[in-house]
Write a structure and sequence with these properties.
Layout (H helix, E strand, L loop, with lengths): L9 H14 L8 E3 L8 H14 L1 E5 L9 H9 L17 E3 L1 H6 L14 E4 L13 E8 L3 E2 L2 E4 L1 H11 L1 H7 L5 E3 L2 E3 L2 E4 L2 E3 L2 E3 L5 E3 L9 E2 L3 H15 L6 E3 L6 E4 L3 E4 L2 E2 L7 E7 L11
Parallel strand pairs: 1-2
Antiparallel strand pairs: 2-16, 3-19, 4-17, 5-16, 5-19, 6-18, 7-15, 7-17, 8-11, 8-14, 9-10, 12-13
Length: about 300
């Protein structure tokens, strides 16, 4: 169907582009929402979170849960936002929620081989880029129980803004990055053979409701891009875009009781250092749905 993400529908794109740039936040404070208890949202709190997610595909919340390590916080918050189908995989706990911590990775040795469970920096990515299409990660809740002694900051960029900037530079970049086989994640092997098959897919795609989804990682190992010139130019342009902060690139660090709710926007993480009193622990819940739409949002 024609629409703002159809390269042939310039009129729709221009209307959407104008609205997007008029409303896109430029400071982390613009997406901040104060919650009492994320497990039980007041109507005004729910409305504030949904409005920010509709505008920017993300919201940051503060809450009165400092010191509370209840894993129900992200799950019950997600349910109120229309997020129910958790993305369970071999590194999550039995409840499909991942405790992201260095200590937890030591307790479960298989985790410590994967960068999110270490203190190393993580480059720009969206979550679940290695999943099969029927398990696409569209929504996410990230709740902070404890921050590190130092470091662990995030950059956030609405993937719709990344699309807009690339399309403005050259629509052919969007065309190349929308190819069904533009980015392939090679198979993951274990001692028994193929633990996860190779997975190819687009960077930009639309879901059944016409919402834009982005599948991306800035990793340079274990990633295979199409070798044609158009793809290589598009990947280089996206790499440049993410390497240079835009007016819409948001910066911050989650403190205890804070969290991120998003439609799987682009994000990174700086390296961090744990201390005796502060050992970083976040709960990550990833979902196959997007956050509920905000009523009457264009």
């Amino acid at each position: 169907m024609p629409g703002p993400f159809d390269l042939a529908d310039l009129a729709s794109y221009r209307r959407w582009r104008e609205r997007k740039l008029d409303s896109a936040p430029r400071r982390i404070e613009d997406i901040l929402v104060a919650l009492d208890d994320p497990r039980t949202l007041a109507a005004t709190e729910l409305e504030a979170v949904l409005e920010r997610c509709a505008t920017a595909n993300m919201a940051i919340y503060t809450s009165n849960t400092v010191g509370d390590a209840d894993k129900e916080i992200p799950r019950r918050l997600g349910a109120q936002l229309g997020l129910h189908r958790l993305d369970s995989h071999w590194l999550t706990d039995d409840d499909a929620i991942s405790p992201i911590s260095v200590r937890g990775a030591t307790e479960r040795g298989e985790r410590k081989e994967f960068i999110p469970y270490t203190d190393k920096p993580i480059r720009w990515h969206t979550d679940g880029y290695y999943n099969v299409p029927e398990r696409t990660v569209r929504g996410m809740v990230l709740h902070c129980v404890q921050r590190a002694e130092s470091g662990g900051e995030n950059q956030l960029l609405d993937h719709e803004i990344a699309y807009l900037l690339l399309r403005d530079e050259n629509p052919d970049y969007i065309r190349a990055l929308s190819a069904a086989d533009v980015m392939t994640i090679p198979p993951r092997m274990d001692e028994t053979g193929v633990a996860r098959a190779a997975q190819s897919g687009p960077v930009f795609s639309l879901d059944g409701e016409g919402f834009l989804h982005m599948r991306y990682t800035a990793r340079t190992v274990s990633i295979e891009w199409r070798g044609d010139a158009a793809t290589q130019a598009a990947v280089a342009a996206l790499t440049r875009l993410l390497a240079t902060p835009t007016p819409w690139t948001l910066h911050g660090r989650l403190e205890p009781g804070m969290g991120l709710v998003c439609n799987n926007v682009l994000h990174d993480r700086s390296g961090f250092v744990d201390g005796p009193q502060r050992q970083r622990l976040l709960y990550r819940a990833r979902y196959h749905e997007r956050v509920l739409p905000f009523p009457d949002h264009p």
